Amino acid sequence: MKKQMILAAGAVLLSASTLFGQGFVTFATGNNYVWNQFTTPGAGVKGNANIDVAFFWAATSATDPLPAFGTAGNTPVGSTQSVATNGVTSITSPANVYQTLINAGYTLALVNGTSTVIEQTIGASANINFGQVQVNGMAAATTYQLIVVGWDAAAGLNALTGGTYAAIGWSNPFSYITGASASDPNGTATANSDGMQKFGVAPVAVPEPATMVLAGLGGLSLLALRRKK
Asked: Sign of torsion, CA 93 98 100 104?
């Protein structure tokens, strides 16, 4: 009797660990998926060690907030070029993409049980090859919405979280079903096989001096009005 109770308890624990276990994701793509539009603006080339990537996840009901900065998932032109994320040679709004995604309910992917960001410098073939990982907070066998973000590698991870990057780009939002185990076909699917499109990383446009002067004058005017009140 005692042995049966132990076995039953073990089965419950095993079931609970499967139910609440973290999901498996394969953060990888085929070749030619991340493009460099910032080294020579207007002449995109396949990215390499100059681009870092990470990904954000959210419930499938989340609304993608990034179209405000530009259209994602552009189709490459020819075999060696791709347009920038927003379809032009630079991103005109240097807003903090990280904070925008967080405010919209997305989470920056971390290695399960740690505070380590799932981040990688892309390969020489413009590919992501981080491999399979369990993601902190993502349940097993569950569909999530993912967005891959790329930025200039020289700036480092703090540039992404702090909004101080010189170049930024992101993929379209796509659905990914997490794996319940390392061998689950869902968790072994690459990002591009689950719907991620190719994207470019573009330079952030620096405001014109005249625009900065006008902005400064506007601020001084508001300060003067406040003092009068």
From this structure: positive
